[in-house]
Design goal:
It is a single chain. With 100 residues, the protein is mostly helical. 48% of the residues lie in helices and 8% in strands. The chain has a single domain, classed as Rossmann fold (3-Layer(aba) Sandwich). It has a two-stranded parallel ribbon with strand order 1-2. β1, α2 and β2 form a beta-alpha-beta unit. α1 packs parallel to α2.
Amino acid sequence: MAEELIGARQQLMETYGSIDGLVNGAGGNMPTATVQPADDLFNLDMAGLKQVIDLNLHGTLLPTQVFGQAMVRSGGGSIVNISSMASQRAITKVLGYSLA
């Protein structure tokens, strides 16, 4: 994923000369990262949990690193992070999404 972001950054820099803004809106959940009705925390699929954390946490951090670096070098810019209501209030049994 980082390589694709770096490629996109290079293309934007070549086309426009600078990057002035970034909107991070990646997010979502997967059934494998939730505690199913008949299960509990001890049965949570860790691979599913990792996928959701990669999407929600790393899907915001990586673009911020890649594009933010170009913004700093160009003199600044703005980064807007769009989050879920789960950032302020945990959602029951949706552990992966709430954690990320």
